[in-house]
């Protein structure tokens, strides 16, 4: 995309995962004493914001995050739909499991998926994620003098990713709702901000 950023070395053994749509870019540290954990999915240049959100969650709230690079939400959605179709038409065979479901298996916590595209783009994998799922995307119309402000306007930057992750943990009873409110205040998010879809 039209943004310069450092591309990390490809982790070993992920070649097939990359071609199928999703690979584990960065595993969070082992959770200690039952500390909450989340799964952060990022696609395109928003992946940099997702990585930054993982750092914020760990530093500010003690939440561990695994970071996944989604090379294609479309491929993941198609694989899930095809798997669903196969299971529908072969009721006597052992059910197949979508690739995205298998990838997340063994990685605890809600899933936050972010991209530079509209939410519907990330939403296409929701039926195949067997846990709480929150999609972030660039709904509405926005203009800005800087990319960082545009991402804040569209609610897809590191702070919005972090708050979404904390909100899902609170809904699951893993943290207190007050922690979400604390994050909103800490990151300077205006709760009265207009919804981008209405602007």
Overview of this structure, please?
- It is a single chain.
- The longest helix has 17 residues, at 73-89.
- This protein has helices at residues 15-20, 46-61, 73-89, 99-104, 119-123, 147-154, 158-171, 177-186; strands at residues 22-26, 37-42, 64-70, 111-114, 133-136.
- The protein is an alpha/beta fold.
- The model has no long low-confidence stretch (mean pLDDT 91).
- β4, α5 (119-123) and β5 form a beta-alpha-beta unit.
- The protein contains eight helices and five strands; from the N terminus they run αββαβααβαβααα.
- The protein starts with 14 loop residues before the first helix and ends in a 13-residue tail after the last helix.
- A five-stranded mixed beta sheet has the order 1-3-2-4-5.
- α2 (46-61) packs across α7 (158-171) and α7 (158-171) runs antiparallel to α8.
- Helix content is 41%, strand content 13%.
Summarize the structure.
It contains eight helices and five strands. It is of the alpha/beta class and 199 residues long. The chain has a five-stranded mixed β-sheet.
What characteristics describe this protein?
13% strand, globular, alpha/beta, single chain
């Amino acid at each position: 995309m039209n943004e310069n950023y450092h591309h990390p070395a490809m982790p070993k053994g992920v070649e097939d995962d990359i071609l199928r749509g999703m690979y584990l870019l960065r595993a969070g540290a082992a959770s200690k004493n039952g500390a909450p954990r989340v799964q952060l999915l990022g696609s395109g240049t928003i992946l940099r914001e997702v990585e930054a959100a993982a750092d914020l969650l760990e530093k500010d709230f003690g939440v561990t995050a695994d970071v996944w690079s989604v090379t294609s939400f479309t491929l993941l959605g198609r694989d899930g739909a095809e798997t669903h179709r196969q299971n529908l038409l072969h009721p006597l065979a052992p059910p197949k499991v979508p690739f995205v479901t298998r990838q997340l298996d063994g990685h605890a916590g809600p899933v936050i998926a972010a991209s530079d595209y509209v939410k519907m783009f990330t939403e296409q994998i929701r039926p195949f994620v067997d846990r709480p799922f929150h999609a972030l995307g660039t709904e509405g119309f926005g203009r800005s003098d800087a990319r960082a402000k545009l991402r804040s306007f569209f609610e897809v930057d590191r702070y919005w990713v972090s708050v979404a992750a904390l909100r899902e943990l609170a809904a699951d009873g893993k943290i207190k709702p007050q922690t979400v409110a604390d994050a909103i205040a800490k990151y300077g998010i205006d709760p009265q901000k207009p919804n981008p879809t209405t602007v």
